[in-house]
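Response to reviewer comment R2.3. The reviewers asked that we include at least one raw input/output pair. We reproduce the pair for Copper chaperone here without editing.
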Amino acid sequence: MTIEFQVEGMSCQHCVAAVTNAIREQDAAAQVKVDLASGRVAVDSAQSADALKAAIDEAGYTVVDAH
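Raw output as returned:
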């Protein structure tokens, strides 16, 4: 299942790596695509949206929308 998040606080490639790594800690097989310019993160994962959102939040970023 693919879930899209709007994430605030990402400003560089380090941020992209931090968000990607946080998601992959929840699901090592997750496919993660981050568009830094728009703040969109698309995740193809078996994990719930809530679990993925929590992982992004714990990495220090703010999810403002998920669908």
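Strands lie at 2-8, 31-35, 40-44, 62-66. Residues 22 and 58 are 8 Å apart (CA to CA). Further pairs are available on request from the corresponding author.
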